[in-house]
Amino acid sequence: MTSTSYFSPEVRTWTVSEAPFHPGKQYHTETITTIGNGYMGLRGSFEEGYPNEIVSTLIHGVYNQAPEEIVPDLVNLPNPLAIQIMVDGEQFHMQKGSVLGFRRALDLKTALLTRGILWRNSKGSIVQITFERFASLEHEHVLAQRVTVRALWGDPEIEIAAAIDADRLSAGANHWQVLEKGHDGTASIHCTGTTNQSNYQIAVAATVQCDHGELVYEPLDNLTPALRAKFSLKQDQGASLVKLTAIHSNRDTADPLVAAKNTLNTASKIGYDELYNGHQAEWAKYWYDSDIEIDGDEIAQRALRFCLYHVLIAAPRHDDRVSIGAKTLSGPGYKGHVFWDTELFMLPPLTLTQPKIAKNLLMYRYHNLQGARNKAQEAGYEGAMFPWESTDTGEETTPRWTSPYPDTPRIRIWTGDNEQHISTDIAYATLQYWHWSGDEDFFVNCGAEIVLDTAVFWGSRVEYNRTLDRYELSQQIGPDEYHENVDNSAFTNSMVRWHLRQALQLVDWLKQTHPQKAEALLARLKIDAARLELWQRVIDKMYIPRDPQTGLYEQFDGFFKLHKVDLTHWTPKVHNMDAIMGHEPTQEMGFIKQADIVMLMALLGEDAGTLEQRQRNWDYYYPLCDHGSSLSPSTHAWVAARLGLDDEAYYMFMYAANIDLEDLKGNVRDGIHAAASGGLWEAAVWGFAGLTLDGDNYKFDPNLPKHWKSMKFRFWHKGKQHTVTLTAE
Ligand code: BGC
After folding, report:
1. I need a labelling partner for 78 at 20 to 30 A (CA). Which of 171, 210, 458, 581 fits?
2. Where is pLDDT greater, at 589 or 403?
3. pTM of the full predicted structure?
4. What is the pLDDT of residue 403?
5. Coil vs helix vs strand at 580
6. DSSP letters along 145-202, please?
7. Which of 481, 484, 632, 659 to mutate to test the pocket of ligand 1 (most atoms within 8 A of CB)?
8. Is 10 a known active-site residue?
9. What are phi and psi of 266, to 5 degrees?
């Protein structure tokens, strides 16, 4: 790309860039420039290394619980990006010599990360160095890099060493039982390893081609095999080195090293340029299906693409036993664990634009039903109770304690015990996928079991209050995690009632349309007439804390009496209110962390009340919300757009849009807020476009921001792809 095109609208709305270099924002930039392909994710850290960087190479599914840890982590693999360059014997580094120019750019359209630098060493030689990298979308085990060095001033001696670095794995737990380096002459280098608890084996292997000099094998370190080329350049001459890396684990093959070498063989024959062409062609297909085009708002346009990019690079294309963690594959946050974020925030854009991938993610839950059954059984319930945090085993992996601040007492984490609404969120996403995709095969053979066995759990979990002749749920955590172990969360109780209604309808439908399958499944899940009657009773008598006249929900028993704080004056605020006020005092306060009743209104729409009633709930709950969770703004934008609250809708949309791009929460270093990313699509499509199902059909009720001239997107409905262009009135 020439510098004159940097500022064209086309480039601006497809690019995340940094120029000049901002060392203070290094963690943030590393995260937002992560590349990936649904198999691997690599942060945008520099090839030559930088102080305090977080280098991370993650692949889905490879978790390990290190001896000193209480829960498993997604394991950081040896770093395949490492490349060192010497100019006249001086190591190129951005803290040495003089950086005369710098631009790092992630092209969202092609998922290509580039960095250009003009660098002068102490001897006065000036070189232009260009780095490129992409994780092939066509060949998901392949990472491709190219570095070009051009002599701009002087005739420098150049050395380039391309390495795999297993010596400086990021700080944190030690996950490796064995980690070894090796090489195959000068044909390839590799690192292999086995995790110390889960026994996953991985291989990272690389091959190098350089159009100048001879390659020699010369390890940089104990665990850093490298291939090095030395040559001299005349002024105005350039040289290129291509490094192709293959990553495999024993999750995808019996012998990862053999597979990695085979992959390298194939990739080398294809060559960098053709690999890139194939990769780009796959991305063109991705964007054809998933892009949302906004005319009239470049900032919203770029943010939508940025957010969709991050969901797409994390979405497993060929593996239905893994899911997307709350921080994708872009950093260490939440240890790579999977939450409800996937089902309620990331799945909708995939269900409508990439249904095959959406199915993979639901199959992950299906394959892990046993973990959910174990959790229910251990707690004394029936059916399947999905873990709040999930990894490769499907068992509950939420830590029980945390010490967020050094000098304060540790805090018990209750979400793993009591944030039980996740079982219904998963059922919701399963039904949503079925209704939009019409994928009956999946639904009858797998999806129905998810919806029904989680309903079995709820039937055993609800509590009958004899005195008041009603069903209740005590000790819950709703979406608003500031308030723990509450009784009768309006969100949870309402969603459970909804869930059981769906389950009853599903049983009828199954019996009518697939009688044999119905019989076998109902027998296996022990769903008999008595259980169905119980579900009906619970539906009829579930207590929902809500004023029947006004329709105002009480978020949980006693919420109205909590001490209210006028949040309008608590600005500018970076920290969450619970961090400011303290964990225990927060229990007595009436501010909330994220969309809770608002989330209920988003999910149930008109079933959560008339327009007037929903407006009343909005008026009550919107001012109480601190958006302490990145999941909150997009849901607020969605609901505000439906209520016709245009200013609030756009404000909340832009808040969600910039959470990662502008590091609004100050913690992007830990990884992308993937739910906020998926949520932005929801705000646009469910919110502004007003797309909903209408029986067997779909309908729109657009309410676009007034300055948007149009919004165009595609979606799948029952096996057919539709394109729609909506215009502002
Ligand atoms: C939010 C949860 C979310 C989790 C992971 C928490 O701060 O409150 O709703 O699932 O982060 O993103």
Report:
1. 210
2. 589
3. 0.98
4. 83
5. helix
6. EEEEEEEEES--EEEEEEE-B-SSPPSS---EEEEEEEEETTTEEEEEEEETTT--EE
7. 481
8. no
9. -65, -45
